[in-house]
Amino acid sequence: MQLRASTALIREACDGRWTASFGARIQVDPVSLGEQFASDGACVDAFRQSPDVTVAGTRVRYGQCVAHLDPMRVDWSNALIATITAQVAPDAAAACSALLPQSLGDAVAKQLTTQSVVLDAEYAQPFKQPEALGEAPSGDTSGQKSSAGGWVRRHLATMATKHDLRIGPPGDGLSLRLASTPGSSTSKSSPELTMLLGVEGSALNLLPERIKQAVTPALPLKIRWDLDHESDLVFVNDQSVQRISVAPRAPGPTVLTAPECGNAVMVPPRSLYFVEADDRGNARDPKQEEALFRALDGANAGAGALVSVFVHGWQHSAAPRDTYVCDYARIVSELEMMENAAASATPRTARKVVGVYVGWPGKLYSNDMANATTFWNRLQAADRLGAEGALLRRVIQGLAQRLPASSQERRADRRSALIVTGHSLGARAVFHAVRDGLPPPANSVSGARRPDLVLLVNPAFSAELYRGIHEQERQCRPIGVPLLSFSSEADVVTRQVYPTGQTLTFDYASQQAALFPEHVYTAANFGEFVTHRLRMQVASGVAPHPEGDQTIVRGFLRVPEGSKKELYSADLATVFKQPKSGYPKAADVWYSMQLNKVHANPNPCPDSGSKVIEVDAQILPNHGTIFTPAFVEYVVRVLNRSILGDVR
To answer: Does domain 262-270+280-355+375-526+603-644 have CATH number 3.40.1400?
Structure first.
């Protein structure tokens, strides 16, 4: 890098005007860093109190995507101010479009890559000295800087920030402002954030449908909230939205009536139990736990129990009319029907099906825009839910301890079984709750029961947390519990939103054990960990609608007569069109789901049952739509292998 400096008292500034002041004008020759970055040079006006930097002709490359940043300006007076104007290179528009989320659609992606983007950023420190940025957070007496995830909070607590993003020309563009103000040091409040979204002209097409309803050219969308939501208030267009307050469900079995779920639950499950946690992960009503454990003790006195635990994720709760409550109740009801049908066919006494819905405050507000501000705050709540001594870990351990040991019954269809499922942040809580109890079986001397199967659907936890399990399985030391992680290829939350936030929380200056990619990407989306892909092939007609009727309700009549083994196949699950009565014919194949290994090389280790599975968007269409007929069909095949055995 070559520099030329002029320190004359009277000199020409970078903008071409003459100045008389102490300082220097520094000219930087063109520079490049491999193929990723190149500039036509830079000019720095270094005044006595502040620098002013202008960078010309900058080009940034990622793969085949190339963007021009011109001009780039940074100056510091009372605040650090940066201005960047970006434009995708015309011949790289297609490559840049391919990097955008598929959910945007081709038309929106094309429009985004043909518009100019201007970013203005301002960082000021009105409350603390610059050296405060390196201080440990309040209450930390270790003398160390805050851990990964803490540096964003540390900066927001010490400076006022403002980011203005503009896409497209005036009158036909989109503007977004995100600003923050440090909280009060006396009240120990968290920083206050404000988002302002404006849109004009054709730029309205860039927005998701849900946001289109909340913003117009004449009325920008304004949202203001506390980072920690300690005030239980969010202001949307200056209207206050208060936190939802709902009483916990009554202890004991719950029958969901038509006013709550309509016709979604055709046969109300006789054994659906709710256990609910507060923000700290503690039980809201300890009697819920007591009633659940009493029911399981009673089931063990009979033919045993099939216990299914479900932990919801972000934007959901155990409140009446929550869609997941009704969807899960329907699944529990159908599990009852299938267990009764299987018992009649054997014959044997049916096991008691117990469904457990673990509720926690995953949804804080009734307003969708207000809830959009809560993801990272709810992530912390999920960690508390799965922590040592918290409700979820206590419930899983209590249920496992009450089930008879598997070795007491050789036939799988006569054993009691515990299946634990978590979705999104609920999967994060489940993983925290069970991972400490997953040592190599050879080293386990306690003999304590663990779940028979753990399902994590679109899980929101980083690959760094899964590294230990991955390495253990690679060394042919299975963890002892089949752990299946499913991630939709169309999941924007864990594939785009989560990595973006994790990028901001990575502490680049600290000596972290985890590498940057393992901190940023979720375990189920981390390429090294993905073991299988689940793909759908439609043989006749169209794929099942994600919110269509479930096809598992017909039990053992869902496959051609004499082909009951189809119901136990998880590597190739075939679904048939259903006649009004009787068995379908072999030619009535509707669609199939094939589970394929990612790596062609044979694994030297025996199959432990644990898998990380990338799922076709036809099966799981997004982050939140998980009770789809196709996915439930596949999960039921997995459950059949686990809790029924290959009985045919």
So the answer is: no
